DNA sequence: CCTGCGGTGGGAAACGGTTCGAAGACGCCC
DNA sequence: GGGCGTCTTCGAACCGTTTCCCACCGCAGG
């Protein structure tokens, strides 16, 4: 096996920093500096090196980076193990921001508490990462001292934490906006609440915050929400279908329904259509999340800036990784009411 | 900051192989051989080294292993992004087997096709692992040539693939067993089928195989299954609730329901209880999966040896990693009927 | 013309492991 | 007693990066 002939193609042995250096006629240190955006490189040199990297398809080996530099340029993202589009969008945002800073991410689905603890303590995993982004759960509060047993920086997203930086949505505000909107339409108001035990391992509070804000705004307007106007279900479209059935037993159309999540709102719409009721007139439905498909289904919703929140979280983490000190910072985001056919008479 | 005093505790700087070697009075090569179960170590030496490793809390750095040895002793597990207990159990099995061989795993939730392709091609991730275990989807068939674009070994679990080793359950057999059992009870038979688009990114075939076997066995017994005796829903307990509602519109109790998944069967049970019907007599319910909680809920089910399948998949992968050649091997597993109160008259 | 200095670039050392050639210890045989 | 395997063990070399020290360059100032 003479290794005289280079095989820099996407084959078994990838090109190394030495290959790049040689081909570009510079030293390995210079290549490293280019990779790490060090300012101490002349623009022409940088361009030349980058061209060679491109040509050779060079990608720095993260394991080597980790071992040499102490950092892996990788962050772990801990996310609930539920299949919703929300997390897809959130990751989109996180990844966009991390990518610009040449960071990678490793996903860690939160399947069980046991697994989480193994992840955090036993260091044997592939998750030897520089920092953590935790989505949707305030994991910190379930550990003694209110802090995760790790010395790496942590940022919360879609959740607020006292102990760590966080980027979160004002869910209660969303509930209040929902109340205002539905009240303006006139007619009785109902709500679909969602069980917090998302995946029977961890509990989130977003849904109760949404319904809480809703209830509060209604009360302030002098229209309290009766208990039987609230239906609780697990997170599924079918739960929304059942909810509307119940509501129709109590009340003849027209009626207004606020669902704490778009998926559930979709079920309400499905059930209405199946019952031959006109959505937007006889049954008005307002969801929450702003999932992409709500536009084509004509579903009114409270849109949250998911990608933006993801980016914000990633940015905060990177700043911490670069040494920023100081008390936890919190970025608050607001949902935006998007009115579509499902809460508008006719088209 | 004199570093004269060692801090081998679980602090910032973990002990290295050199620390262990020094403390044990051996060379680093010997320590490495102990770590890797090389036979060329005297038992007493091995014991001594292991004692020191224990004492120091030494864990080999996977990045260093990867860089030095070419392997990372880590395998990726690709799994659908749905929050079911099935995957928890599957991972339990996989992890048990891998752990015995000193391998770690990195989870990769299959959120979208786009993300999968990035994972497989762009090598920049932390997922520089030695092999892949793919759960539930025959991902291979969606790539040109019917093979994943990777040269690392691949094993399928809970799915069968022509191109790769696989450990899978005979779902059709489960359906047939279900049919036999329900027929023996007497009375009309219904089925709840589940949408294959588990998480709207990838499609699985397990549910249609289950219902397929069910239908086939019924037909053979001369009791074909009418179309309106099959209700389709997404995977959720509420879907089961709605299904029973529909069935009760067509048929007065007693009736028998086979649900293609335990979660859905649970919904059927819930709906029956809410309607004041006696489960096991007026409504008989049979699930599929053998989730741990079925025991306490008295739900009859087709139990699958999930952990065992996971172990089998991991074992096959490790063998491949150790150089085993040859055509794809397939391990077939069979579900086992567990009869409980939900398909038994009285207690 | 010499000196000093900021801006660049080169490459040795280090990171924490694996691997492999070499060497020591020991027992056996002639 | 010397020759020769076998069984263990040692530690240097290496994996692909980062980091740091030093050298070099060109230019302004004395």
Automatic annotation (TrEMBL), chains A, B:
Pfam families: LacI (PF00356), Peripla_BP_3 (PF13377). It comes from the Bacteria. Keywords: DNA-binding, Transcription, Transcription regulation. Residues 15-69 form the HTH lacI-type domain. PROSITE patterns: HTH_LACI_1, HTH_LACI_2. GO terms for molecular function: DNA-binding transcription factor activity; transcription cis-regulatory region binding. CDD domains: HTH_LacI (cd01392). InterPro entries: HTH_LacI, LacI/GalR-like_sensor, Lambda_DNA-bd_dom_sf, Peripla_BP_I. This is LacI family DNA-binding transcriptional regulator. It comes from Oceanithermus profundus.
């Amino acid at each position: 096996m003479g290794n005289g002939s280079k095989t820099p193609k996407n084959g078994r042995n990838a090109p190394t920093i030495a290959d790049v250096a040689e081909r570009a006629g510079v030293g390995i240190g210079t290549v490293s500096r280019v990779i790490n955006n060090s300012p101490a490189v002349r623009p022409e040199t940088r361009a030349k090196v980058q061209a060679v990297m491109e040509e050779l398809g060079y990608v720095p080996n993260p394991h080597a980076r980790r071992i040499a530099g102490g950092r892996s340029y990788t962050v772990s993202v801990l996310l609930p193990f539920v299949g919703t589009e929300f997390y897809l969008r959130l990751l989109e945002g996180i990844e966009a921001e991390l990518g610009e800073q040449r960071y990678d991410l490793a996903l860690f689905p939160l399947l069980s508490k046991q697994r989480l603890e193994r992840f955090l303590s036993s260091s044997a995993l592939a998750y030897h990462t520089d920092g953590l982004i935790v989505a949707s759960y305030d994991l910190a509060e379930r550990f003694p001292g209110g802090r995760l047993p790790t010395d790496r920086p942590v940022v919360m997203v879609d959740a607020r934490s006292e102990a760590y930086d966080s980027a979160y949505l004002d869910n209660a505000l969303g509930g209040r906006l929902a109340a205002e909107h539905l009240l303006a339409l006139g007619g009785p108001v109902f709500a679909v609440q969602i069980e917090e035990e998302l995946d029977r391992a961890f509990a989130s509070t977003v849904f109760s915050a949404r319904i809480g804000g809703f209830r509060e705004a209604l009360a302030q307007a002098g229209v309290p929400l009766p208990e039987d106007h609230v239906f609780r279900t697990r997170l599924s479209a079918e739960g929304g279908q059942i909810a509307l059935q119940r509501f129709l037993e109590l009340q003849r159309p027209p009626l207004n329904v606020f669902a704490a999540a778009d998926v559930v709102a979709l079920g309400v719409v499905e059930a209405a259509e199946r019952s031959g009721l006109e959505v937007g007139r006889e049954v008005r439905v307002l969801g929450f999340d702003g999932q992409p498909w709500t536009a084509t289904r004509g579903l009114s919703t409270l849109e949250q800036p998911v990608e933006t929140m993801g980016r914000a979280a990633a940015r905060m983490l990177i700043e911490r990784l670069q040494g920023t000190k100081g008390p936890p910072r919190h970025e608050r985001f607001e949902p935006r009411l998007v009115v579509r056919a499902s809460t508008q008479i006719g088209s």
